[in-house]
Amino acid sequence: MSENISIIGLGLMGSALAGALLDAGHRVTVWNRSAGKADPLVARGAVRAATAAEAAGASPLVIVCVLDYAAAHQALDGAPLDGRVVLNLTNGRPAEARRTAAWVESQGGTYLDGGIMAVPQMIGQPGALILYSGSRAAFERHEQALSALAAPRFLGEEPGLAALHDLAMLTGMYGQIGGFLQAAALVRSEGLPVAEFTEELLVPWLHAMAALLPRWAEEIEARDYATDVSNLEINQVGLENLVTAFEEQGVKPDLFLPMKAILDARVAGGHGAEGLPGLIEEIQPR
C-alpha cells in the first residue's frame, strides 16, 4: 500500500532512503538544507519542500536522517508534529533518543528511533537491517513501508534501545576492524601479501572464533567464567608475546594495548584462572 512519507536530510543515506521509497511506489516529499541535493530525487518523482516544516507537514510519517540529534532538533523546531510519526534514523546515543522521544511527544507527535545497520548502497537490498524502538503501534502501522528500506527489527518500546543496539553492533565491528588492521600490519611488515593472508587464513579463522560468542554470552549472563581451555594467565603470556613481536617487526601495538591492559588488571586482581569473557567485569564492574 502506497504511503505519503517525508524525508528530512538528503545526505548519502537520506537520499538512499528516499530512493528506495520511490522505487517501492510511495509518495515522497523531501527537504535538505542544500536544496540542490533534492534534484535527482525530484527528477524521479519526489516532491521538493521549501522548508523542513513544510516537509513534515506533508506526510503522516516523517523520517529524519541528518548529521546528529542536534541537527534533527534544529530541523524539526517549529514543524507541525501533532498527529505525526517522527522516525529518527540519525546516529546517536540512547540518552539522546530518550530526550528526543520526550520532546516529540510534547509536540503531540509519536516517536520511533532507528539504527541503520547498512551503508547507503545496501538500502533496499537483501542484507540491510534497520533496528527500531519506540512506539510499537507506529512501527506496526508503517512496517510494510519500512520494509522497502531494509529488514525491520523492532526491539521494544523503550526509545533508546535501537541506539543502544546500534552502538553495540558498531562496537563489535570496530573491534574486528582494529584486530584486522593490527594483523595486516604484522603481515605487511614482512613484505607478505595482505590480501592473500586475509582471504585464505584470517577470514576463516575469524568465522571459527565467532562461533564461540554465543557460549561466551551465556557465560557473561551467568557471570560464570570458569574455563578448561585457555585461561587469562595463558592469554596474558600470549598477548605479551604479540606486543613484543609487533615491536620487533616495527609495528606499533597501539590498537592492541587497551585489551592487554584490561587483561593484565584482571589477572592482577586474582582472576587468572578465568576465561576471556571474565574481562567484561573490568570494563563494567558490578
Automatic annotation (TrEMBL):
Keywords: Oxidoreductase. It comes from Nonomuraea pusilla. One of its GO terms (cellular component) is chromatin. One of its GO terms (biological process) is transcription elongation-coupled chromatin remodeling. This is 3-hydroxyisobutyrate dehydrogenase. Residues 4-151 form the 6-phosphogluconate dehydrogenase NADP-binding domain. GO terms for molecular function: DNA binding; NADP binding; nucleosome binding; oxidoreductase activity. PANTHER family: CYTOKINE-LIKE NUCLEAR FACTOR N-PAC (PTHR43580:SF2), OXIDOREDUCTASE GLYR1-RELATED (PTHR43580). Belongs to the HIBADH-related family. Residues 158-284 form the NADPH-dependent reductive aminase-like C-terminal domain. The keyword Kinase does not apply. The keyword Oxidoreductase applies.
